[in-house]
Amino acid sequence: MLLRTNETIENKTLNNFLTSHQYLIHDLQIDPTGTILVSSSSDNCLKFYSNKDSTWKETFTLELEENTNIWKLAWSPSTFGYVIAGVTFQNEVVIISQAFENKKMQWKQQTTVCSLPDSIQKISFSPDELGLVLGVADSSGILHIYHAEDPSQPNIWKKHSEIIVANTCLRAFDWGLQPNYPVMIITAAINRSVKIWKFCEEGLKWESIFNLGIELEVYDIVWSNFVGRDFHLIAISTEEALEIWKIEKLKNNAYQNIEKERIAYFTQINDSIWKLGWNETGNVLASTSNKGIVKLWKANLLGNWSCISTITGNEDEDNDDDDEDEDELEFEIGN
């Protein structure tokens, strides 16, 4: 397969590169440092690429254990080195990391964190302040949380806690941090329940703080980094719109009067947003839709949010007949 980007952004041309996968690619993820890309495919392999001089080059192919096709990938924070969690079609979560073998560093399938009876909807590592912690959301409405007691040994994982969010599918969740405050998680189930939870060290349990009050089915939800602000920003994609919420800094035992405000609302007509992501500083939001459109959103000095860039994916019409078996991706950048 060929991944191709051929438009120019700020006078820099994006490069094409071959994945060498033989079958459908399920997921692509770039590590937090932006230097390594990993892809998963139906060919039961993970392929790794290194970014040197703005060019992606394949560096390693990991043949997974039998019946370990991975459809979803997630990188850990870079603090813990290169650790990847993957979700298989058998509802297992496996860990892949680098290991020193045969006098060199190689990628290795380390262990299985869990095997769940219900389909897994999302996985996400927590911020590094919490250690090497992984959340796993399933279709029964439970958020399972696992941790590696020794981050230097990513092959040993234990169950940390769980949140019984709802009696229906848990579609999305994200982690939230605030200085001098317990870790938080925001969850979104398909029953239109969007809740914020805080962790209570006593009893190792999670307490629901408040319900955000979303009236539409939620597809994704992301919490921005708490950097240089005295409030939180949470972005939510629903079946009809993209919403951005502002929530005041949380205080202990003062949950009833928390100030929250929806500061942006963008209706999506025939173009549902499926995935969201904040940049590291939490001032630019990226969204992807079911039409293959990526948009970047940012607020101006007055706090008004708008789309600042659009990336549209178009099928390449110039494929040679000899390349019919290769999928090509082409992107156009516009403002």
TrEMBL record:
- PANTHER family (alphabetical): NUCLEAR PORE COMPLEX PROTEIN SEC13 / SEH1 FAMILY MEMBER, NUCLEOPORIN SEH1
Among InterPro entries, the record links this protein to: Sec13/Seh1_fam (IPR037363), WD40/YVTN_repeat-like_dom_sf (IPR015943), WD40_repeat_dom_sf (IPR036322), WD40_rpt (IPR001680)
* Annotated GO MF terms: structural molecule activity
What GO biological process, any one, is recorded here? protein transport
Acidic residues: compositionally biased ranges? 314-335
Family of the protein in this entry: Belongs to the WD repeat SEC13 family.
Q: Which organism does this record belong to?
A: Anaeramoeba flamelloides
Q: Where is this region: Disordered?
A: 313-335
Q: What is its main location?
A: nucleus
Q: Where are the WD repeats?
A: 18-50
Q: Name one Pfam family in it.
A: WD40
Protein name in the entry: Nucleoporin seh1
Keyword set for this entry?
A: Nucleus, Protein transport, Repeat, Transport, WD repeat
Where is it localised? Nucleus envelope
Entry keyword annotation includes Protein transport:
yes
- Give the record's GO CC terms: nuclear pore outer ring; Seh1-associated complex
The highest taxon in the source lineage is Eukaryota
